[in-house]
## 1
Amino acid sequence: MLTQAIRGVKDILPSDVRKWQRIEVMARELFSAYGFSEIRIPIIEHTVLFARSIGATSDIVEKEMYSFTDQGGDQITLRPEGTASVVRSYVEHKLYADNRVNKLYYVGPMFRRERPQAGRLRQFHQIGVEALGAAEPGIDVDVLTVLDEFFKRLGINGVELQINSLGCRDCRSRYKEALIGFLNTQRDHLCEDCLRRIDINPLRALDCKSEGCKRAAADAPVMADYLDEGCRTHFEKVKEGLDDLGIKYTVKPRMVRGLDYYTRTTFEMVATDKKGAQNAVAAGGRYDGLVEEVGGPQTPGIGFAIGIERIIMMLPDAWKTGPETPALFIAALGVKARRLVQKMADDLRKIGIRTERDYAEAGLKAQMKKADKLGAKYVLIIGEDEIARGVSVLRDMRTKEQAELPLLHITESIRKIIQEAGGY
Ligand code: HAM
């Protein structure tokens, strides 16, 4: 217990963390270019926020939330997703008062008590965007473009953007009626969960993983046939916009989402070279009724979230990284040299050169071995004899070439050499 993390919760070790940092830096640059600003939302919220927004009969709320009563008797939940919190924050701080459209993004951990497997964790991480205040199809196109561009920049090719429209509340209630009628004819095939939810949340049956429900869903009526004029036109314009930008997509008329707040445009970025339940690497959609549901003014919204663990599994080889390697290792021999090296290492680090040294009083051989193990590009050797002569020896660990460098202006000389060799 003491030496084992909780099931489905993972450490991100130094050997992997640079990938995470690069993905985050790239996401921030991209989102900022598209006019999104970062929002930092809390990890805990009142349970009722998620129950209300994601839907009391959704799998997340019914089975997967980490909820507890705190010492003050409040019902608290570790956020299973970010949209509800962003909307709560938007309403609480009246962000709509300053700008008609608010474009926000967030990065951070989410918690769902799912059955852990590859790419499915109990603490996982999302990068998400939410655009609040615009009902026009142009914003759907922008949001989908950012998502598409994100995957292009990562160099991930094996993905497909799948889209659908779930219509507005009116279309949905007509569709639900038809779907309930159909599902009632299929009762013998449906799983217990879907039977129980048939009248309250029939759409879940279309997304259920049990074999009987899957077979029944294949013949179910499709939402597209129940869209009213407004929703149909909206969807057409979104597709037209994507075509204009050359963004490839596939329309999936049977796509539904596990969260209840969606209206109109919904989408998933799906890994095409991998079969199985974990193939959605990002997902999102419109939620035109959510702000009102949470207690704010009627405000449209659209967004998506990308699962970082899932994209890390798909990164091309060029992304392979290890922990930070030092540009320079300083090997010191003797008391005098060690004192000098302490200052020298500090000067080099202050100008941004990743510098390591040995803290034990080891001999030259042991220090060289350590430099090699750390992956240092250069080793600077300084002994009593070198100090006496006012020099040091710089060894290029790749070419094994060695050259003497005067101790005078050593920081500057090393900076130049390392810069010319391609950086720190
Ligand atoms: P979601 O489909 O529940 O949507 O999750 C989005 C993405 O988070 C998934 O496609 C997947 O990559 C990742 N993900 C979800 N659960 C797990 C898990 N247990 N382990 C690893 N990765 C996971 C949402 O969360 C919505 N809030 C998205 C959204 C934003 N819709 C509108 N705005």
Note: The pocket of histidyl-adenosine monophosphate is lined by residues 81-83, 112, 114, 119-121, 124, 126, 128, 130, 258-259, 280-285, 303-305, 307, 309-310 (CB under 6 Å).
## 2
Amino acid sequence: MTAKIEIVGPQRINGTVHISGAKNAALPLLAASLLSDDSLTLKNVSPLVDVKTMLNLLEELGAVPHITSDSLDFQTISLKTDSIDNFTAPYEIVKKMRASILILGPLLSRFGMCMVSLPGGCSIGVRPIDLHLKGMQALGANVDLRDGYVHASAPHGLKGAEIDFPIVTVTGTENVMMAAVLASGTTVLKNAAREPEIVDLANCLNKMGADISGHGTSTIVINGVNSLHHTEHSVIPDRIEAGTYAIAAGITNGCVNLIGGDFRSLLPSFVEKMEQVGLIFTDIDNGLRVESSGHIAPVDIQTESYPGFPTDLQAQTMALLCLADGESNIQENIWENRFMHVAELSRMGANIEIHNAHAKIIGVNGLKGAPVMATDLRASSSLVLSALAANGKTVIDRVYHLDRGYSCVKEKLAGCGVVIDRIQ
Ligand code: EPZ
């Protein structure tokens, strides 16, 4: 029996949510601990399932984590990696989380070898890693695909190179950047990803003694150094979690204070679009207040890499636009199959037409509670949002997807007057 969430709507969110540390910053930062035989201390780490999976992988390699829980939702993790004695990321772990590929760059850079299981596809698409591998080869690594594994080696170390990514890849940029920090010479990454999580990783690596510049722009320059050392670093807040709760305010005609960071600059295109939808944003101390104007206007959205509209908020936004007073359009440009939530939203009465990577959402007057099934991480959060607005009971199955990227959802919503029940 898989875990379920039961929600009886409609409910209105009204309160404050402390946003946790970003999943997509914590994962590469944890992998970066492999780059130094000194310890790395990360603060503001959210106790997410994906974080636990990455910690399991690091322990499999011989790393020793020490976790102190500062509260239910904020952890400090210190990782010692002076006794790494295994260089293989097994299929059992990699199939659970594709971001496992992020150990490739650090292991290659520090130890000159790594074996990573090919991750296989996942629900939102094929999710290839060819650009990661081409980047490592450009730095001088030998890369073989054998028996379902990537066998990578660099017996004479890695050598800086100029790498021009044909498409923007977030973890590809992170992986190659980490490989380059201990390479000999200078590496230039062109058409690099510009996400805040890349900047956070580069800032932490520089505190460890790396020499990186240009992070946050499309051209990142890494001058190789001989070794890295201990540092302490606090993970940036999770902009996707923040955006998800912002939409909760819009879809329930409520109000939420998002505390923990400068979310307006972390989500520039999202805030701009949501203002067009009718959400009202007010800067507050260490955060952003989001209020519904009582009206949901239709908009057209194209998902793009940062600073464009984030694909990781596409499903949640679609839930909101199901209740807009008109027709909206969403073009999903990043992932080839990120509309699994559409069938589930339609079960609740949404009116959505799909043509390849284009969704036409015709707003309806209301949604109706129904039994639905989560299919992937962000789809699961879009179902929670639609259930809050729907009339009647919704039971969401397979909510283990939600736990991969959102922590303490029940508690955070309860703090805003919203009741959801988890049924194991
Ligand atoms: C990161 O995935 C995020 N995950 C994803 O968030 C996010 O959706 C994605 O970036 C886009 O913003 C983490 O950071 C852990 P990409 P990533 O490489 O790096 C193609 C979530 O919900 N591509 O930027 O795997 C790829 O097919 C997750 O938190 C190649 O062709 O995404 C896609 O079309 C879901 N070859 C595009 O690039 C490659 O070698 C962008 O993918 C790599 C990518």
Note: Residues 49-61 form the longest helix (13 residues).
